[in-house]
Amino acid sequence: MKTIRGISVKSLTRVEGEGSLKVRLVDGRVEIAEFSIYEPPRFFERLLRGRQVAEVPDITARICGICPVAYQMSSCLALEKALGIEVSPAIDRLRRLLYCGEWITSHALHMHLLHAPDFLGCESAFTLPPEYAGFLEDGLALKSLGNQILEAVGGRAVHPINVAVGGFHRGPEVAAVRGLLPALKQGLEAAQRSLRVVQQFDFPASPSPRVRLSLASEREYPMNHGELLISRPTGDTRGPIETFAEQSQEFQVPQSTALHSRLAGDNAAYLCGPLARLAHNIDQLPPKARQVAESCGINWAAAAMHQSILARGIEVLAAIEEAISLAAAYQAPPAPAQIPLTPRAGSGCHATEAPRGLLYHSYEIDAAGLVTAATIIPPTSQNQAQIEADLADLLTEALHQSEPPDDPQLTRQCETLIRSYDPCISCATHFLTLSIDR
Questions:
Q1: Domain 47-202+326-346 in this protein, CATH class
Q2: What pTM was computed for the model?
């Protein structure tokens, strides 16, 4: 007689969107491990058709309240390619500073409030043991610091309003940017303290994705620029961002309204995000972040998913180091702050590194400067197939232990694994409600 065990999570709560988890175990093996998204499609790509190029950054920013800058940067850079625009180095530096703010606030939120409780046996960040009160305070301070950068450069902490195709609507005031320095220096200390805490966490065994994809650069830790790098056990593939549509292919699955992605050719699931970036670009980290990355004893090319919280902490430290350098060097607003736009027919694509991974945009525009087609591929969509593969590996390993975990333990393991991807979750302190059918 077959032994069948079913795990059904009908609603993943506190997620940016609506999703569920379904697992079917037959005779100790995983038959189904589905991470499903059933939120109705939002049709942003269709909504962009017929819009003026200048409208796109403000529209795409509304896709996500946590990483709107990523959507603005990918859209601006793709459209600038289509229009033949090359912005000045001064604009490029301001865009990097803005992106630093987003990385800091997004990663700090995830590290301190969403993911750390999994390693400390707590239900939420607000039930941490008293000795971790300073850790929580540092997390809140870091999130506030990121918001301050977004306000100073982008004009607003959520859905910034100063970003434009060709640059910025207005050059940020010198006093506002340089005025960030005292808080940034305090943030540097908070990030270092947080990393010391996270390094002490007990990281249980977890899957280690074999295929990783990110931007890679020889001049800087990638945010807005770089080549596409895919690392497999059989070797690396490197090429311009324009090859992404050839390398990664989207496909529909019955259980999800969100498209999945796999690599063309070998149909491999892959990981994007902090672990992939760190594996590909550790040499480009600024000094303090690189020292932590190299001294913590982790082989980042093969790091396990639970260690992503440490990778995020390293990227917070790196972003603060970068922001200090950029703010200290800011002497005057760029002139002009925005390169004039001349409508023309064309097409362009680009990808930047959102906190959760590579975010790809592609546009076609007509001679009047109207968008005729748009494609947006977010990192969570790309990670979905890898999440399901990791869940299958985790469950298989757990069920073959000499003392298999009970239902609550298995629930927590699944929660922690999914949370390690930070799949566009704005607040996921406790988001799996598990039911077992025997």
A1: mainly alpha
A2: 0.92
